[in-house]
Write a structure and sequence with these properties.
This protein is an all-beta fold. 0% of the residues lie in helices and 49% in strands. It is built from no helices and 13 strands.
């Protein structure tokens, strides 16, 4: 069983009028309802637990428990509008005591909701405390939305 803690995620579009503005709603999982973080989806839902106290900079974090190494687990933000050709940068803090490779993705979707581009980076576990994961890329021409 692999356990991983993830803390506040951010996606920024440095080349828009409000440079370095965090575009995600509820980026640090502080807004919870029925045990789930608002504006986030989990697959499978039972693999992710949202906890308060012990986060990196805030109080909340997501604990992901992977029961096997054959299937993937995702925690994805609700997509927000993107600008074709815009530069996007996402960060996440990870902490794990297991040998796993947690990662952060930037996913771009077209107007039909099809993923048209993605880029990711991974960190190696186990970690000594919290480690930062970062990824940057340019939105493709056909992209209308981006998620982390």
């Amino acid at each position: 069983m692999v356990r991983l803690a993830i803390l506040p995620l951010a996606v920024c579009a440095p080349n828009v009028a409000s440079a370095q503005e965090n575009l995600l709603a509820n980026p640090s999982f502080e807004e919870l309802g029925a045990g789930r973080a608002a504006q986030w989806t989990c697959a499978p839902p039972e693999a992710v637990e949202f906890l308060a106290g012990g986060g990196h900079a805030g109080r909340a974090y997501a604990r992901i428990t992977d029961p096997d190494n054959k299937t993937g687990i995702s925690l994805e933000s609700v997509p927000v509008p993107s600008r074709p050709g815009g530069k996007y940068h996402a960060t996440a803090w990870f902490r794990t005591s297991d040998k796993c490779r947690p990662g952060i993705y930037l996913n771009f979707y077209d107007d039909l909701g099809t993923r048209v581009h993605h880029l990711y980076t991974r960190t190696d576990g186990p970690t000594e405390g919290w480690v930062l994961g970062e990824v940057s890329t340019v939105a493709p021409t056909e992209a209308v939305a981006v998620s982390v």
